[in-house]
Design brief:
The structure is a homodimer.
Chain A lengths: L7 H8 L3 H11 L3 E2 H5 L6 H13 L3 E6 L2 E6 L2 H11 L2 H17 L7
Antiparallel strand pairs in A: 1-3, 2-3
Helix pairs in contact in A: 1-5
Chain A binds a DNA duplex through helix 4.
Chain lengths: 114, 114
DNA sequence: GCTATACTTAACCATTCAGTTAAGTGTTAG
DNA sequence: CTAACACTTAACTGAATGGTTAAGTATAGC
């Protein structure tokens, strides 16, 4: 099921590129949940939810365990850390850019900025 | 051209979910580049490159300026900062998880970990 | 055993993606 | 003016996405 042709960062960033899946991540940050727990706030069918969870699991963002007839999902944020580390390499760029913006704003004291 | 139905974070994470586009970002971190500059290391046609740049531009990850007949691209990492900030909200989770792993490893001094 | 519950799998659909080739546009060089 | 250059746009392709409904599987409760 996992696509070995796609590298881990591809899968993590892709998994996080959908608002429903980010909401699922946010929900799981509150604690473990079953699929029926998850299906309630998101107006989506169970098969649709299954697909989202599959994509999150392929990205190693969540872990799933069957307990009885329920599937329990919990967050595994290690993959997110890798994505954050990739982004952090550019932190210096956006900090520099915001510094420039700040300096620029100081040169134009009280003009309306738009 | 921009898809207003998709929110900014969707576009940023999606743009970064492709290895070619991440390579373009990495290349642009070295400094501005034209499309022919970019097309060389990536074995892709110009129209293919144009599409990738369009996706990066839609995500506000790059800025493009035509100078003569060349298109100059440069990094605009502010959108990346937003993505990093989203991920940072889960930093506590992966740090906690790594702490547990560390504690766990300390309880099993020199066993082979698999 | 039977039924309800909690998913899963299969099949399908419309849209988007990533790539291509071919033709078009605008700019620079000679 | 003409030709080369640096893209851009159009049109097409195969595959993947995000969603659905319908049918199947496995567990729990009675």
């Amino acid at each position: 099921m996992a696509k070995p042709t796609r590298q881990p960062l591809d899968r993590v960033f892709f998994a996080l590129s959908d608002p429903t899946r980010r909401s699922i991540v946010m929900r799981l940050a509150q604690g473990e949940a079953t699929m029926t727990d998850l299906s309630k706030p998101f107006s989506i069918s169970l098969p649709g939810l299954t697909k989202h969870l599959q994509i999150l699991a392929d990205a190693d963002l969540i872990e799933r365990r069957k307990r009885g007839r329920s599937q329990h999902c919990r967050l595994n944020p290690v993959a997110m850390r890798d994505a954050a580390e990739w982004l952090d390499r550019y932190r210096v760029f956006w900090e520099r850019q915001l510094d420039s913006l700040e300096r620029y704003l100081k040169t134009m004291p009280t003009e309306d900025a738009n």
